[in-house]
């Protein structure tokens, strides 16, 4: 009788211990691998928003037309958002452990593409503040091409 109870308790304890190990292992995988990949994907999706939202936001400093303060504040705000997205993308990209493996699985873009998108966002921000509309368009098109989004629709 004692050996039967011992077997039941041992089986229960080993089952609970195994469940805890599986839970902890799953949580580690989620926190260290899945969440960073998902975060990068989310940021890449959010970058599409300014491609459309700020498409018509620019001025040409070569023209002698005055730029009113409200419009300049919009440009400064947009520039800040573009820079913030560039830094978020770069941070998210470099936080992914085993990036090459996830790249081979097709779960993340090439690291060079992510860096190019980040650089183009910074360039767009600079050109927006500098009043260089042609350069803004070029940066938008580059970002769109790397993301696979048609920025002219």
Low-confidence stretches: none
Ends apart, CA distance between termini? 77 Å
Number of strands: 0
Report the structural category: mainly alpha
Largest sheet: none
Helical percent range? over 70%
Average pLDDT number: 92
Q: How many distinct helices?
A: 5
Indicate the overall shape.
Answer: elongated
Fraction of residues in β-strands: under 5%
Verbal overview:
With 153 residues, the chain is an all-alpha fold. Helix content is 78%, strand content 0%. It has five helices and no strands. It has helices at 2-53, 69-94, 99-104, 111-130, 133-147. The longest helix is centred in the first third of the chain and has 52 residues, at 2-53. The radius of gyration is 25 Å and the shape is elongated. The mean pLDDT is 92.
Topology summary:
Elements: H1 2-53, H2 69-94, H3 99-104, H4 111-130, H5 133-147
Helix pairs in contact: 1-2, 2-4, 4-5
Descriptive key words:
single chain, 153 residues, mainly alpha
Question: Can I get a quick summary?
Answer:
This protein is mainly alpha-helical and 153 residues long.
